[in-house]
Amino acid sequence: MNHITNTQSWKALENHFEEIKNVHIKTLFGNDKERGSKLSLNELGIYFDYSKHRVNDKTIDLLFKLAEELKIDSRREEMFSGKKINKTENRAVLHTALRTPKSASILVDGHNVVPDVHEVLDKMASFSNKIRSGEWKGYTGKIIKNVINIGIGGSDLGPVMAYESLKHFSDRSLNFKFVSNVDGSDFAEAVEGLDAEESLFIISSKTFTTLETMTNANTARDWFLSQINNPEAIAKHFVAVSTNEKSVIEFGIDPQNMFGFWDWVGGRYSMTAAIGLSTMIAIGAENYHKMLNGYHQMDEHFRNAPLRKNIPVIMALLGIWYNNFFEAETQAVFPYENYLKRFPAYLQQLTMESNGKQVNLNGERIDYQSGAIYWGEPGTNGQHSFYQLIHQGTKLIPVDFIGFKKSLNPLGSHQDYLIANMIAQGEALAFGKTKEEVKAEGITDDLVMHKVFEGNKPSSTFFLDQLSPENLGKLVAMYEHCVYVQGLIWDINPFDQMGVELGKVLAMKIIPELENDEREINHDSSTNALINFYRK
Ligand code: G6Q
After folding, report:
1. Can 384 be counted among the known catalytic residues?
2. 204 Cα nearest atom in ligand 1
3. Fewer CB in a 10 Å sphere around the end CB: N or C, the chain?
4. 470 in active site
């Protein structure tokens, strides 16, 4: 097996880890007065501070040596060039083509996909403009006021995250809802009080076969027909985003109202494919293109910047350092920007569905850790709940802070307070507070140890000017490429998701068993008991 753990640089990192594992971040700063500026980058308007990490010059050198030894430099190009790097599904991985300018040429099986991408973008823009301007009328002549995206996983998390993140830029006369869960309450609450005559459903499903989405889509059609009792009206109120035209037509959606994409776009990488239709309706085509431009800038940065000046590459290497050497299990992401409240949930799918793999590309069980558990909440809220564990618990949790200089809603001192807190948390995590410092405050002996902050807790800070469509695009692409580099290093496939299949298959077996009490069941004793409990 071509183990990464057998590479020279990995072995060197293991040895080096023993030297540095107990070195305090405070000492690292003490040794080098310029550390804060030395270990930071300012690229594409992102000030990326990675100085508060448990690394010294040698660590950085060895991490880059690892990247060199694993040929990250040349292999990153494989994705952009359309090579079929999603080996288990024999597919190219070209979400970067979705945000490439019209003039580019990217070949998949000899076919230039860029004109196709722009044709769909133009069709989306034309449709979005009609909805936004009121030119598109519902069946009874009313304008559309409600847009309901029905989709799940990659066909939901991107749209809902982008909508929440860019709400400030959205048309407030339109009301957006996102239905994903097969739990009927999700649908029921989304349509509560809505007038079908003013509602547009976007059925977003790459395959158009997903149980949850098709169940919700059928329920939506029933709900709609219960208000407008005429199947002809469907054409004005249902559109589809899919790669499966046949099933879209079978559902009753006019193929004219279908927005296509391709098998070389993975679900969780599809936010900039037609899956972004609800986003474009919300923020308008111009803003949407600004978002694409932000993505593209980050794509180009990742593709062309030398590894040592490459934000996603550095993030990826630091992630490996904590995951595989410090044995950190999780990575926290705390946006100090309330509009980014769904960003951590979006990242959970992107990172964990991509790199939560146990075998390498040859199908051999790996004997090292792969993807970290990603989690997070917006600051400052998290500070009043789980930050305690990061500061004084026993686990090592590297943190990504994301903040913006300017608020989209400048109110009094709010932004100063928000950003002061973000900066303070990074400082407190790294430097902590010693016993001596606590004692000097006159704290009684019995409480001293309770008030000590050991510090030495690593964090990165991503500081931008202001949240905008462009900056959101940069941030998402930055994490996408970090995921890819980590996948390359772990020698796994970040672009399939076979781990979601088994549960789906078993559910299909259990559905008829729940629906028919007489049906014989022969699962294990626990599963049988659960089924019987439901039946009763
Ligand atoms: C993402 C996954 C998965 C997918 C959903 C929805 O990478 O493939 O989350 O997006 O299962 O699939 P459909 O879009 O086909 O309904």
Report:
1. yes
2. 14
3. C
4. no
